[in-house]
Amino acid sequence: MAVIDRNGPIANSWVHLADDAQPAKGQSVIVSFARLKNEHNSLFSASTAVGVEVVGDVVLEDLEPFLPRLGIIVVRMPNMRDGRIFSTGRLLREKYAYKGELRAIGDFIPDQARFLLRCGFDSFEVGDAFPVDSLKQAVATYSVWYQRATDRGATIIDQRTSGVS
Amino acid sequence: MYIYDKYDQTIARERVTEFTQQVKRRLAGELSEDQFRPLRLMNGLYLQLHAYMLRVAIPYGTLSAKQLRKLADIAEKYDRGYGHFTTRQNIQYNWIKLDQVPELLAELATVEMHANQTSGNCIRNVTADQFAGVAGDEVEDPRIVSEIIRQWSTFHPEFSFLPRKFKFAVTGAPKDRAAIQYHDIGIHIVKNEAGEIGYAVYVGGGMGRTPVVAPLINAFVPKAELLSYLEACLRVYNRYGRRDNIFKARIKILVRDLGPGEYKRQVEEEWQRIRGTGIDIPPEEEARIRSFFKPPQYETIAEPVHSFVEAQAKNRSFARWVETNVHPHKVPGYGAVTISLKPIGGIPGDASTDQMRAIADLAEKYSLSELRVTHVQNLVLPNVRQADLHAVWQRLREIGFAEANIGLVTDIIACPGLDYCSLANARSIPVSQRISERFADLDKQHHIGPLQIKISGCINACGHHHAGHIGILGVDKAGQEFYQLTLGGAGDETASIGQLLGPGFSSDDVVGAIEKVIDTYLGLREKPSETFIEAYRRVGPVPFKESLYGGH
Amino acid sequence: MAQAKPINKILTGNRLRTGDTVYYTAAGAWSAYVSEAKVVTTPEGVEELDKAGKAAYAANQIVDINIIDVLPGDGAKPSHIREIIRATGPTVRMDLNKPVTPAGR
What we know:
The complex is a heterotrimer of chains A (about 160), B (about 550) and C (about 100).
Chain A lengths: L1 E4 L2 E2 L4 E3 L11 E5 H14 L2 E6 L5 H4 L8 E6 L6 H12 L5 E6 L6 H6 L4 E4 L5 H10 L14 H6 L4
Parallel strand pairs in A: 3-4, 4-5, 5-6, 6-7, 7-8
Antiparallel strand pairs in A: 1-2, 1-8
Chain B lengths: L5 H22 L5 H9 L3 E3 L4 E5 L5 E3 H14 L3 E4 L5 E6 L4 H9 L17 E2 L13 H12 L14 E4 L13 E7 L5 E7 L12 E7 L3 H15 L10 H8 L1 H15 L8 H9 L14 H9 L1 H10 E3 L5 E6 L10 E3 H14 L3 E4 L5 E7 L3 H10 L14 E2 L14 H10 L3 H7 L4 E4 L13 E8 L2 E8 L11 E2 L4 E2 H18 L7 H8 L2 H8 L3
Parallel strand pairs in B: 6-7, 7-8, 16-17, 17-18
Antiparallel strand pairs in B: 1-2, 2-5, 3-14, 4-5, 4-13, 8-9, 9-10, 11-12, 12-15, 14-15, 18-19, 19-20, 19-21
Helix pairs in contact in B: 1-2, 1-4, 3-12, 6-8, 7-8, 10-11, 14-16, 16-18
Chain C lengths: L8 E7 L5 E4 L5 E2 L11 H16 L3 E8 L11 H8 L17
Antiparallel strand pairs in C: 1-2, 1-4, 2-3
């Protein structure tokens, strides 16, 4: 297991905590949404930092009350065709103004990373066999894009209308 | 026509690089077939019965002579000397090799063409009225907004992995030549009472195993805010469209399950949140795109054009071709020519390298270098001077594309069917060929009048059978090809879904059954001007059932 | 006891690199010609084809792997129309069809 961003491996202090395990002192833990809902008081007092792992069908309204206190949200892609993750990312950032780390996990492939980055994700949790170089290459392939998304960098339309050449 | 600027060119170039890398990674085994399949489909690359098939995008069906010549070159160099124009106004090649696709794409990019999003669960090629810009009845040229949607939907970061494919169609005229209500989103350009231009948006239409005529979701979206409205439409779908069952994953099922009212409410709520947040393009960008679709420099020509009138008087065949294949042009002295890719006994939509080159020459010489592809699988020369029509007709006769049958019984839509397609259950093309041969007599065709036959080789309905006045659906019955008939479908502004008549017919019997249906119509029409669809709507299916299946 | 249904099966797929339709032969190779396909008539034979197909798929050589029925008797003749068309080519373009047997045999 490794955690990477657009440039390659990054430091990671987050630990996935199984539903029946207890956080060790000073740990930064990622728990299931069910557990977060049931045990948020004890979790937030026992851990250094708390994050949650969700999938595409998460009801964002239910997650909203916890957002200001969450250090990380990990969104799982159960298979590479399940594109709900992209809307989840954008809504967390743009509608709910979530400011913590947003991480993708699951069956995405390197070619999807640039879309995830544009939809508000910061990092990727991948298996040891994941082709990290392909991800870096895929992200670097495109220098321009047409649409506005979560990342507020200049779109092609912005560049055209500002007369930048 | 729209011309790429340096940004469009950059995207096109980077896309070739990306797909080249993806092919390399697949061949090296880094990507599995399951991982590569969605990637190659997003580049229009299918694995069919005999080889790979590549579908090249022809955005909203508009094509330059130079581009058509490139398509001919590609057919010659990478395929077997022909291509197939499709109901989505695209072209597909049937004999492509995976390891040659990167090179092919690089060649396409030199004429500002690509295969982006011609398949896959993403926003597909936007289709539009083939007479855009030349039809007298349009409120606005639909290609302007189609190009805006093309750019917005290209590699959309949020909507490239939707529950299922997503198709847009746009019409700028009250007469719907783009079948907009059979699309996931159909856009009708309208004027409100204040005289402002906006868009009526229909959502949730489609064909396939659950045909639906799309309901109107918003009667007037202001021009400047279309993209944010579409983004809201797509976001609701991306989040809540079904992903557990491929047959229920299209937006039509979501709209039906929620109800159009509730879907509209959810879209409206999301739209209110995102309006004015920079999703919509500014007016100067709209003006920039609009400038590419300014009418060309037409000559001032007084009608009637005497040589044209005389040629028709002298030559009955030419006059007949003018009657069916030349559409009125908004500019006096011009006409829009539909080139029939439906010669008697031919393969609907197929054109050889030589034919494509000859048509490119005609476009250059007689149509200000412009062409269109129609969703009925024909080509259009949109800007022909009436004085040149006779010369165009003569040249088309030489290449076998002058059949005077547009809108008639032999102007058949047929999907590739089991001759090529790995999804098909039955062949489509041979059925269309035999129908066309049975009704080859032009007098007979004109006697029958407007009639659309549409054939699909499986329930996916690529041949639009649900929208055919007579629809034919191929099925596999214990290893044999059988064909079911539907009647009463229409894809225009009076869109309706064809109704199944009864048990299917064998391949041997289906053409006879079609003839019986047509004879029944001829026997019951009130006057020669009552068309097949009008007569069917008046009398319903019963007389046709009786003539086909008898009284029991 | 019910008579077991007779088995006459071959293994087919398409080459990943070119998309060409190919058939698994008795020599363990892949041929463009259906007549060269190895016909199996026993459950063990089917298992062997299944294994060969999976191995070729895993090696990124052959995709769209299928074990299909052929008619009983000499030569591998596919029984279903889909596979008949796949073996030779589109019925509407006989000029582009390939023979079931390589030229000269």
